[in-house]
Amino acid sequence: MVPYAVMKTYWALGGTAGRPAGDLAAQFAANGAPAVVVWMERHGLDFTAVGALAGMMLLAALVTSWGTKVPRSALLVPGWAGAAMLTPYGLGTILAASFGFTVGDAEGWSPWVGVVGGLAFTGLGAALGVCSLAHQRRTRPGP
Fold this sequence. Notes:
There is one protein chain. The chain has helices at about 1-10, 25-30, 35-40, 45-65, 70-100, 110-140. α4 packs parallel to α6 (about 110-140) and α5 packs antiparallel against α6 (about 110-140). It has one domain. The chain contains six helices and no strands. By secondary structure, it is mainly α. The chain starts with a helix and ends in a 5-residue tail after the last helix.
């Protein structure tokens, strides 16, 4: 997650390496993105970075004692869902970016952005799977 966080922070501070030229918020709006996503982009908040932060908070809840105070299913359902979605998505993104495949409008995006993002998604997904399994075993109701 560190390279991903560095990349997103660099962009939030005005960096442009790896990004297409122009106003991404306007592109999002033109493509029908939800208003909240457009608003976040206009204010320097990348919606994927906010999602990654939520995933890291979920990881913290899965491995710390305060997470045991939260209903078990409230952590395990998003934990397992995140693992099931993010791990293959990240692996697919790494492969696609490495071989030059794209989906949708990728004009102006550097392939390394896909690799960095894919590594972050794969790592977060795998961590969610491992931590969800550990939490599930640790909080299992039993005799």
